[in-house]
């Protein structure tokens, strides 16, 4: 009897220690415990809480606490981290720091997009302003630093979205933008730089992952047309796969000795361009090599990263088409329409796949090679979605008063976002080193090289201004309606811990639990 009681205590301790420590919980997006199957706005939602400011990051959780980041103020003036009780949603603490660089808090710019990481000592949060902060489990600020002050401003039209990865001792950040880009490891205890390696400039929102191979920890980064592995301890480059297209948003998914790489349809490319960049790598037992075991023939993904469940790999397109592929061969099992668009990466739990629509509607799909929807659940009444209670979006015009930019915001915007000085053509011409009004082959930015043949209509290997204008017009047409589709409420990110699902919109957190009963 004593042995049974002791085992139950151990089991309960293990359950209590369940965590979701980082974006996609390190890349697997898999819950260790079963999750609720059904909920409605009136039942199954344990609690919901409106939070100050705005955030596009996912929540993280550890030891019964939830952590979430946000930016506060019309110019994203403050960066904050909040800790709440998973069981009640009650706030334990909030820690805020002043942002060292500001920009309008609007749908065109990232708003606390990087997801924090948490360990047994602290929570670490990174913001598109370049600010990084470490807060202990009781809410005390341990250290803070600004990467933009140390290494220069971020030159990215929409801000940064790459989330940090972690090792036991370091935070790993992939900083990619128009300017000098880099991968950096920062000491968790001190906030000091352990190592920093240069990377090609690229417009990317993908996040690094850390995998174990050959007794080494390897940082894997998929972006800008390549997948690369780095030694986590030193930043040494270990291996690289080039020639990819569209790997600018979804992040790598580790699954044992496999890495699933996702890629979206390039802005000016075709499905054929991107499908072969959705692939599987098998890593060597050592940390120095890999082989490509398969490439997809038609399947692509977009905002959501790939997930793996059993013998299947799942890729979700921008318009909500779900592709199920064989994990070993890449052969297609099915393609099916989910009927929802997802910005958050799905969660795998108990042979179920949870797809969190940006509209608050979740589809629960049976894992396996045959498509079957098990449940469709709403967070809110689709006819009356909840609007932000206190957050107000700041337009570019309203960020100045009487024509005078507030706190130097316009100057900082022009520095951080060259395209704001005259659109895409003006931004491209900043690469025109010889000033002849034409981008020669060596002046064309990396992100356009893979689709050069589609935008270089006269086939001379360069881009003249007419070709750039046509490209900009195509870009505007593809973005038509984006303003309306980017308004709250939007489901941005999720976490799963202790049998509960925590869902984050721009201003609100929801916790879903089997034991929640009727929602108050």
Please give the structural blueprint.
Blueprint: H1 2-16, E1 19-20, E2 45-50, E3 60-62, E4 65-72, E5 78-85, E6 91-98, E7 117-118, E8 122-126, E9 131-136, E10 141-146, H2 147-151, E11 165-166, E12 170-175, E13 181-187, E14 193-199, E15 209-213, E16 216-223, E17 226-231, E18 237-241, E19 253-255, E20 258-261, H3 271-275, E21 279-283, E22 290-295, E23 307-309, E24 312-316, E25 321-326, E26 332-337, E27 347-349, E28 352-356, E29 361-366, E30 373-378, E31 400-401, E32 404-405, H4 409-416, H5 423-429, H6 446-449, H7 452-455, H8 465-478, H9 482-485, E33 493-497, E34 500-504, E35 508-512
Antiparallel strand pairs: 1-3, 2-35, 3-4, 4-5, 5-6, 7-8, 8-9, 9-10, 11-12, 12-13, 13-14, 15-16, 16-17, 17-18, 19-20, 20-21, 21-22, 23-24, 24-25, 25-26, 27-28, 28-29, 29-30, 31-32, 33-34, 34-35
What does this structure look like?
With 520 residues, this protein is mostly beta strands. Helices cover 13% and strands 34% of the residues. It is built from nine helices and 35 strands. The protein starts with a helix and ends in an 8-residue tail after the last strand. Residues 1-16 and 398-421 have low confidence and may be disordered.
| CATH level 3 topology | Methylamine Dehydrogenase, Chain H
Major β-sheet annotation: 5 strands, antiparallel
Structural class: mainly beta
Average pLDDT number: 88
What order do the strands of the largest sheet run in, or round the barrel if closed?
A: 1-3-4-5-6
Given as residue ranges, the uncertain stretches (5+ residues, pLDDT < 50) are 1-16, 398-421
What distance lies between the first and last C-alpha atoms, to the nearest angstrom?
40 Å
Beta-strand content? 25-35%
**Annotation field: number of helices:** 9
| Shape category | globular
What would you give as the CATH superfamily?
YVTN repeat-like/Quinoprotein amine dehydrogenase
Per CATH, the class reads Mainly Beta
CATH architecture heading: 7 Propeller
| E-strand count | 35
Helicity range = 10-25%
Cα-based radius of gyration, to the nearest Å: 22 Å
Domain unit count: 1
């Amino acid at each position: 009897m004593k042995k049974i009681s002791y085992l139950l205590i151990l089991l309960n301790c293990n359950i209590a220690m369940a965590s979701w420590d980082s974006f996609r919980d390190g890349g697997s997006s898999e819950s260790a415990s079963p999750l609720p199957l059904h909920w409605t706005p009136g039942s199954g939602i344990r609690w919901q809480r409106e939070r100050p400011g705005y955030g596009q990051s996912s929540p993280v959780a550890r030891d019964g606490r939830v952590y979430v980041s946000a930016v506060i103020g019309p110019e994203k003036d403050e960066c904050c981290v909040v800790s709440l009780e998973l069981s009640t949603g009650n706030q334990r603490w909030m820690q805020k720091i002043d942002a060292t660089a500001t920009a309008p808090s609007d749908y065109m710019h990232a708003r606390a997009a990087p997801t924090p990481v948490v360990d047994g000592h602290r929570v670490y949060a990174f913001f598109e302003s370049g600010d990084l902060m470490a807060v202990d489990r009781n809410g005390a600020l341990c250290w803070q630093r600004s990467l933009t002050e140390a290494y220069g401003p971020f030159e990215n039209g929409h801000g940064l979205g790459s989330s940090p990865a972690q090792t036991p001792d370091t935070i790993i950040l992939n900083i990619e933008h128009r300017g000098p880009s880099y991968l950096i490891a920062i000491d968790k205890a001190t906030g000091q730089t352990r190592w920093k390696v240069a990377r090609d400039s690229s417009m990317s929102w993908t996040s690094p992952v850390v995998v174990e191979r050959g007794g080494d920890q390897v940082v894997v980064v998929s972006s800008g047309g390549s997948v690369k592995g780095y030694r986590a301890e030193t930043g040494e480059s270990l291996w690289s796969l080039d020639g990819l297209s569209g790997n600018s948003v979804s992040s790598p998914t580790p699954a044992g000795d496999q890495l699933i790489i996702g890629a979206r349809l390039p802005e000016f490319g075709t499905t054929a361009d991107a499908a072969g960049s959705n692939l599987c790598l098998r890593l060597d037992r050592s940390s120095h090599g890999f082989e490509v075991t398969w490439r997809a023939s038609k399947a692509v993904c977009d905002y959501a990263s790939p997930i793996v469940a059993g013998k299947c790999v799942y890729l979700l397109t921008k318009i909500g088409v779900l592709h199920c592929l064989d994990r070993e061969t890449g052969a297609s099992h099915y393609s099916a329409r989910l009927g929802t668009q997802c910005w958050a990466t799905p969660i795998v739990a108990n042979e179920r796949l949870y797809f969190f629509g940006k509209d608050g509607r979740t589809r629960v799909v049976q894992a396996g090679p045959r498509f079957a929807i098990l449940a469709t659940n709403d967070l809110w009444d689709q006819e009356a979605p909840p609007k932000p209670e206190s957050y107000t979006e700041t337009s570019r015009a309203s960020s100045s008063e009487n024509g005078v930019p507030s706190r130097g915001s316009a100057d900082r915007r022009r520095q951080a976002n060259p395209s704001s000085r005259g659109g895409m053509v003006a931004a491209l011409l900043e690469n025109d080193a010889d000033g002849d009004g034409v981008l020669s082959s060596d002046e064309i930015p990396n992100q356009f090289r893979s689709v050069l043949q589609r935008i270089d209509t006269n086939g001379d290997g360069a881009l003249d201004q007419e070709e750039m204008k046509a490209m900009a017009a195509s870009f505007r047409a593809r973005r038509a309606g984006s303003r309306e589709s980017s308004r709250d409420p939007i489901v941005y990110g999720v976490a799963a811990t202790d049998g509960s699902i925590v869902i984050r919109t721009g201003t609100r957190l929801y916790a879903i639990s089997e034991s929640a009963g009727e929602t108050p």
